[in-house]
Description:
This protein is of the alpha/beta class.
Amino acid sequence: MTASPKLQPLRSGWWIVVLCVVLGLAAAQAVLQVSTPLYRSSTQLFVGATGSTDTATAAYNGSLFTQQRVTSYVELIESDRLSREVVDDLRLSVSPAELAAQVSGTALPNTVILQIAVTDPSPRRAQEIAAAYGRHVIADVTELERPDPATPSAVKVSTLQPASFDRSPVSPDPFRDRALGAVLGLLLGVALAVARSRRTRTVRTADDVLATTGAPVLAAVPQERRHASPPLSSVLDPRSPGPEEVRLLRTRVYPPGAGGAPAVVVVTSPDRDEGTSRVAAQFAAAVARGGRRVLLVDADLRRPLLSRELGCADGEGLAEVLAGTADGSAVIQAAGEGGVAVLPAGRRPDSSSSGADEARGLFAAPKMRALLDTLCTEFDTVVVNGPPVLTDGDAGSIGALGDGCLLVAGSRSTRRKRLAQAASSLSWYGVNLLGVVLTQVPQRGGQGHRYLADPDRSAGFPGPARPGGASTGTVEPDVPFVPAAPSGRLLPMTGPARDDPS
Length: 502
């Protein structure tokens, strides 16, 4: 099932939530260590009428009278008068007001029972205070309910339950305080994770990509050490195994045993300097090592970086083929012994408006589609290195002519807004977005594949089928792939060579 985008901040910031919960528990434990334990003692008094109860009516009236009087005795318990009496009796070193704050009186509902509760740092003193309150309540009520010294009191108060003694503190409560600390830490962690997600403007993880584009991360290419990046020409060396993450990308795009596979794969990015050319070359080399005939096409006419870094000879290329001034088979160049051929960009259009219009006209759908159909009859896979989506209007048109598109984004360099705009633009052109390749991923334990998102989490996403079994980042062996039919149609094929499209 697809994870809700609202939960993505929690998925990417889970460590913040866990840290805040731990800090909340630590704060609760610190409070428990510095808090003074309080002990509780309680006593219960029974209030009864002293009048005649020979008849039912007299008994009822006496009970009703005492219930009404009990509620007024609560005020007596919490009064300064009674507190002063207890302080003098026990010779306590606290003021009457401070003692009154430690005492509470309660009239139990629908009864004539009066309960007195006392809290104190000493369990023994709490018991003594509760017992003293009971004695003084009995004496004061007897005096107050006697209208004349010669007549008996209207009520009789007696001790129902003596003052209790309990060595277990009632405050602080370890379980309650720790639970409160964990809950407060959880709420704070969630708030910080959401705030962090909203403040962070660049994509960092697979969850960020999934929440921004709805597409999974098919590969997470680790960030190379400074000055350690090999030249692009060495990527096509058949003796080089290539990055494991790119081999995993090949396996995800071309699952072993699948009934169809994209014949034309377009590689593009939102902006320049995202690593598109390197990813395209590495992907083409990985596919070729699996036994396929691969053609790498440099379709970025305005900045043919791929052609220059691969050391392609200057001269005619894609631009001339589309313009009809050169033959495609004549301008294709071999790139070492890795089984990858290269169709360079050709001449670079000038920066004037007429030159830009000319370059845009070269990628008119009929011309480019016819060329791709022809190339698919000679090669099993055509990898097109396309221009950036948001800086070149040709990217959408080129992507729509392919069977699938890989969108390259730089971790911590590509802004979420730009990545979302690029995905939306490709969708508007009807491009089949296979997934996102995240580049420049910081190494954490040397496991770049930990940044991968499960493609199955994007329900309804038109990406490639998942390889057999759950992927754990293990590199699949080089195995032959099932080829696809030309012209962007995904059809099952048999045999090692591509059939004639006619």
